[in-house]
UniProtKB/TrEMBL annotation:
<dbReference type="InterPro" id="IPR001433">
    <property type="entry name" value="OxRdtase_FAD/NAD-bd"/>
</dbReference>
<dbReference type="InterPro" id="IPR036010">
    <property type="entry name" value="2Fe-2S_ferredoxin-like_sf"/>
</dbReference>
<dbReference type="GO" id="GO:0010124">
    <property type="term" value="P:phenylacetate catabolic process"/>
</dbReference>
<dbReference type="InterPro" id="IPR006058">
    <property type="entry name" value="2Fe2S_fd_BS"/>
</dbReference>
<feature type="domain" description="FAD-binding FR-type">
    <location>
        <begin position="16"/>
        <end position="119"/>
    </location>
</feature>
<keyword id="KW-0001">2Fe-2S</keyword>
<keyword id="KW-0479">Metal-binding</keyword>
<keyword id="KW-0560">Oxidoreductase</keyword>
<dbReference type="InterPro" id="IPR017938">
    <property type="entry name" value="Riboflavin_synthase-like_b-brl"/>
</dbReference>
<dbReference type="GO" id="GO:0051537">
    <property type="term" value="F:2 iron, 2 sulfur cluster binding"/>
</dbReference>
<dbReference type="Pfam" id="PF00111">
    <property type="entry name" value="Fer2"/>
</dbReference>
<keyword id="KW-0411">Iron-sulfur</keyword>
<dbReference type="GO" id="GO:0046872">
    <property type="term" value="F:metal ion binding"/>
</dbReference>
<dbReference type="InterPro" id="IPR017927">
    <property type="entry name" value="FAD-bd_FR_type"/>
</dbReference>
<dbReference type="InterPro" id="IPR050415">
    <property type="entry name" value="MRET"/>
</dbReference>
<dbReference type="GO" id="GO:0016491">
    <property type="term" value="F:oxidoreductase activity"/>
</dbReference>
<dbReference type="Pfam" id="PF00970">
    <property type="entry name" value="FAD_binding_6"/>
</dbReference>
Amino acid sequence: MTTATTPARPTGRRHSVVHRLRVARVERLTDDAVAVTLAVPAELTAEYEFAAGQHVNVELPGGDGVRRSYSICSPAGSGELRIAVKRLPGGAFSEHALSRLAPGDELDVMTPAGRFTPSFDPARARHYAAVAAGSGITPIMSIVATALATEPGSRVMVLYGNRTSSSVMFLDELADLKDRHPGRLQLVHVLSREPGTTELLSGRLDAQRLGRVLDTLLPPDTVDDWYLCGPYEMITAARSVLAGRGVDRSHVHAELYHVGDAPPAPRTESAPVPVHCAVTAVLDGRRSEVVLDDPDETVLEAVLRARNDAPFACKGGVCGTCRAKVLDGEVTMERHYALEDGEIAAGYVLTCQSHPTTPRLEVDYDA
């Protein structure tokens, strides 16, 4: 049962919304990856301003209603909205992008989102380190280029794992960045299926090899902040290695590009899932109410029955598009990869992964 939507309070929009954008350029990066530049009309410029490390969610007009998340690879403040798309087996959008997408085509694109974002200060000198695998380099490209341009006193090291040299995304652009900042950017490629420059850099970027690389090339105590982007296994290994070397978790920032076989977080069993929960959602300053009486239905699925404009994308706990703050009641989350520990402590949840554990629940997408 859904009640009428009512005003809640004035609010500045904090969640993503969809606009139709034209494709300006499609560039081949590797045999299975392209970069897509999107033309943003002048009247939407402010809505598509982004921070380094953010992403957009994309949907084919008239498609299956499934949205795909792609990180922005251009530097913040560049005025260019550019994403990278790598082919996934059976991936409807990636197959379309690599085989048929062309300048002049249109895509439904949500405004930028995500908190895998450093805060830069031109007066500050820091040492950043990034560990990426495969298409995980995409947000790292934006972070690195923005850091080098914004903080003249800062240094960056990028440790980038791939199968072969031909599969390295942004190979030339990374080399150009290094040439422009030879004393400030250290770039290390690790190849798993062909010989690297040394034995140390030849093989999978697993915990053992990462530990050796740190001990040899990058003492962790010289790094201020770490940015990790790749598959679940790599993120988990890197976190473990850094923790074992005394790196404070608050200085390690991670973003998954695919959940894959990552196990769900165990549900909290301290309170039973109610068979009947009155859910209130605040979105764009309006309150909507809906009843959730199926324990397998997520909060997002329930809210979408009342508000089809509720923000979402991956529905896998990775992108963070459906993030909201719990104002009343409690939930348990199956996965929460897109949230930092501080956000969880502050009451934020991913509604696509949330199940109520109280008879009443209020969530605020504007918070």
